[in-house]
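Write out the bound-state structure for flavin-adenine dinucleotide.
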Amino acid sequence: MPKTADIVIIGGGGVGTATAYYLAKSGRKNVVVLEKNTVCSGSTGRCGAGIRAQWGLELNCRMALACLDTFEHLDEELGLPTGLNQGGYLLVAYKEKEWAQFQKNVELQHSLGIMSEAFTDVKRAQEICPGVAVDDAIGFTFYQRDGHADPFLTTFAFQEAAKRYGATFCKFTEVVGLKATKGGMLVETNRGNIDCKDVINCAGSWAQDVAALAGVKLPNWAERHQIIITEPVDPGVCPPMLMSFSGNYYIQQRPHGSIIAGESPSSDIRLGYTSNVNSIASIARTVLKLLPRAKNIRVVRQWAGHYDMTPDSAPILGETDVKHFWHATGFSGHGFMLAPVAGQIMTALLNGDKPPFDPTIMDYKRFERGEKIVEPNVV
Ligand SMILES: Cc1cc2nc3c(=O)[nH]c(=O)nc-3n(C[C@H](O)[C@H](O)[C@H](O)COP(=O)(O)OP(=O)(O)OC[C@H]3O[C@@H](n4cnc5c(N)ncnc54)[C@H](O)[C@@H]3O)c2cc1C
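---
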């Protein structure tokens, strides 16, 4: 356990490890990640790991596209696999209003170089996802470069690469206190204290509690989401990430054939990983309806994870009123895909450089000012 650090990152999820990597790579010495459990034990290790550029807000399209560009070269850059699978995202619309919005999104995406398709022909959907039962849908969009990666491999790869640049990772190290000092912060943990210059709160669905240690009030809350995985079926049953906002599902197939599927709860605001049988039944019914070829396979496991929600489902990035105390939190249902860009933005901010995307709009005080980031394509 180091006694001093330049930068302390609280939380070893996708966002914390990516931030550690970009900071250490930029030349920052003595970057220390404190993780109360093990790396990737929070939302990142429990997520669907989808990566898509099909958003409806220019900022999100641009940030996600930058993440796709990064993911496409990440194995090479980090020297370890991330499990990237670019089977595309097939988005399904069941409602007229939703379909109209999808068509607007595609126009915007094209203007930004995201060459997605919008179509109504079910046969085209079935070319992308053989056998998919979507006769009740009214429209689709698809972008081949979208896909999913392996969250464990990705986080591990970021961690190992950060370590090669000199970052230190301390697991089972819980931050229990934060105090402002002259020119920095004192981080109190269950394993001793660290004196440092800057602290970044990457604590995911615990970010609100961590912020409170320094007297900062965040509007975040944890929302519990359920997800299932089946025994393997023929690869090719669901090549894309199949997703619908109005249909309330996302489904992907792992390289060895298992199907991972999830849905959003109508309301499940709590911190906790308890599973429930109703979710298994509901998600399994959805998989069966959409993918008849998956008939008779068994669910092997169900788990729960948290969305670290904000009032507009968009992240909070930047420094707080407490000098030297920064946040990269509140990624709701899309923090895995945005982790590389979040890490790049935080690195630029802490180095006093111009960030690749202006994070001013993602300031934590926007809610007090009555501002919101309005994204139509969000789960
Ligand atoms: C079911 C589900 C499906 C999802 N699907 C997708 C998807 O398809 N695509 C996508 O992009 N995103 C998805 N997400 C969202 C994504 O998982 C999160 O946005 C992302 O993983 C957040 O990463 P993080 O590093 O901020 O948080 P986390 O991964 O939760 O990491 C935070 C870490 O902080 C640690 N910590 C907390 N408090 C302390 C403390 N006091 N001291 C030390 N350590 C502490 C925790 O132990 C944890 O490991 C999904 C989430 C869920 C639950």
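---
Residues 58-78 form the longest helix (21 residues).
The chain has two domains: 4-46+152-219+311-366, 89-143+222-309.
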